[in-house]
C-alpha cells in the first residue's frame, strides 16, 4: 500500500498511524477527498462535500499534535454525516426540497462527539424524503446507487452512508435507525453496523422546532456504519459520550463485564410465514458455524414472538407518524413519498386513540419477555430479511413491494420497538442472476451490551471475510 491508498485503511489503522505521526492527517484527508471525487459522481452517496473545511481541520489537527496536544481516539479519521442530522453551517435537508435552507445553528451531539474524538467530516450523505424509506432517493438530492451495482438498492434510510463507506469514501459513516435505517444499508452494501439500544448515543437536533413523538424518541437511535467490526469497537466509545442536551442518555461504558463462557447464543430460522431464500439460509448456517468455532454455545431454540412485537411496534409508530407527521408529508413530500406512506398505512394500519396508548404501553410487555429470555441467552442469531436485498424503488410498487421491503422485516423493527441492540454483519457473498450482493445476518444482544453483539459480528466477519476488498476489485 502506498500513501495514495490511505483511503483503503480502516479507522483503527488510520488513527494508529496519525497518532504516531507515521502519516499526517492532511495526507489522510487529502486522499479521502480524492477517493470521494473519483467514485461519488457515479454513486451520489455524498450529496454535499465538506472538502474545504476538512482540509482546514486536518491542518489544524496536525499543528496541534506537533505542538504537543494529545490526539483523540479518532485522530484524523475521515467520516461522513447523514443529512438528517445537524452539522453547524450546513442544511439539515432530510431529503426534502422545502428544507434545503434549514441551516443548523450548532452540531448535534453525535457530530460533536465525533469531532471531540478527532474525526474529520468530509461530506454529508444522502437519505430518502423524511428519512422514511428502506431505499434512498429524493427530489432534492436524487438517487444513491449501490457500489455493487444498480441491480440492488443501497438501502435506507442511511443509504448514502452505507454506499459511501463501502466505496471507500471515509472510514466511518454516521447513520441513524428507527426501524432498520442502519441495518438496511449495512445489509445492502456489505458493511457492518450495530443499532445501539435505547439511550446509548445522545441525540438531538438543535435546528428542530418541536420535540419528536415519544415512539420516535424511543425507537430512533444514532450510530455508525463501518467496513469492519473492529472499527465499531474503536469508534462507539466516543459516540456514546454524554451530552446534557439529551436528558435520557444512559452514561454506561462501552465495554461491559466479561460473561462466564461459553456465551450462549439462541439461533432461529423462523420467518413467520415468509419463505427463507437458500442464500439467506446458507448465510445463517455460515454464521452459526463461525460462532460455534469461535467458542460460542449456539443452540437452535424457539424465540419469544418477534412477529407480534414487530407488527405491533410498527403499527404504533405509524399511528404516531399519522398524527404528527402526515401534514408535513402531504404538504412538503413528493407524490412518490405520499403514495409510499399511503401503502405503509395500509400495510401497517395505524393504531389510534386509546388503542395507540394501549399498544405503546404493551411495549414493556415485549421488552420484559426478551429481557428474561436474554438472561439465559445473552445473544440471538437471526435472519435480517428472508431473501436477498431488493432492487431500487421496490417500495414504490404497491403493497407487494412494501411487503418485500418492510412487511417481512420484523426482525429489524421489532428490536427498535423494544430498544435492544442489534448488529448486522455480512456472512456470505451471493452471485445471483442479477449480480453479486452480500447476504447478512443479525445478532441481537442484551440491553446495554452492544459490545457483545460486535464481538460476535467480528467472529462471523473472521470466517466470511470483509466484503470491501472484493467490492473494490469489482469497482476497479
UniProtKB/TrEMBL annotation:
InterPro entries: Amidase (IPR000120), Amidase_dom (IPR023631), AS_sf (IPR036928). This is Amidase family protein. PANTHER family: GLUTAMYL-TRNA(GLN) AMIDOTRANSFERASE SUBUNIT A, MITOCHONDRIAL, TRANSAMIDASE. Gene3D superfamilies: Amidase signature (AS) domain. Belongs to the amidase family. It comes from Lutimaribacter marinistellae. Residues 27-451 form the Amidase domain. NCBIfam families: PRK07487.1. Coiled coil: none annotated.
